[in-house]
Fold:
Amino acid sequence: MELEITLLILFSAVIHSIWNIQLKKSNDPITYIIAIAIVGWVIFTPYAIYRLFNSSISTETFLFTFSSFLIHFLYFLFLGRAYSKFELSVVYPIARGLSVCLIPIYGILILNEDMTFQAIAGCCLIILGIIMTGSISIGDVTNRDKRKLFIKGGVFSAILIGIIISLYSLADKQASSGIDPFLFVWITDTSAVILGIRFFRNSNFRKHFTKENIRLIIPGVFQFSSYAIVIYAYSSTMLSYAGTFREIGTVFGAIFAKIFLKEEFGRKKMLGILLIVLGAFLISIF
Structure:
């Protein structure tokens, strides 16, 4: 990838990790995600409306943008159900790992992208690294009793979410070159605003806006901006590269969790981080 795109995605990964730290600290992750998405949506509304009335968007771009909006609606919906029933440490690495696995496949088979062998190896390393940084072990799969508990722990929900992430990434790529990145995110995050109406009865959701509203501003801006940067990157490089390289954010997330949340940093997580870094390096230079 070009140096400019590499640096932009790295910056996006850093600010994405910062708001994810707040997500991990929340006792109700799904209401927090929707709350910050709404705050970001409100903050960028004036700019988005200006761009909406001063932009020429083709029918094809609009259809892909609307498709991403619909898929994001499903993403927030299924993510909420998964987080309310299962551990984030199980759902997150499987969902992200599967999506990263599918994105290069879409790039090659659907978008006719041509990846180098080194970049393919980098994708594989990132997938393995993401799994290793989560609370998943080989015994969860090989041991019969553990496997049953593991499957009940949200594996199928995580797989569904991973597929949804990969699909909206594909739609994002297809729309990215024909629309302003911030306008695009504003349209897709409208799905969170609609779901916010559904969650308004939730006391935790209302608390975010009545008692923690100021503390939502920075995470809201970071969530919105990090996504917009990725959309810009999609317009300038291949989905296979940008969609996989952005997972370098997992590394920053693990480091920040160690510093601010005092999470354990064992050998397996350390090895997973090193694999992600090595994979990202292979993608960025080939």
Q: What stands out?
A: The mean pLDDT is 85. DSSP finds 15 helices and no strands in the chain. The chain has one domain: 3-285. The CA atoms of residues 41 and 186 lie 6 Å apart.
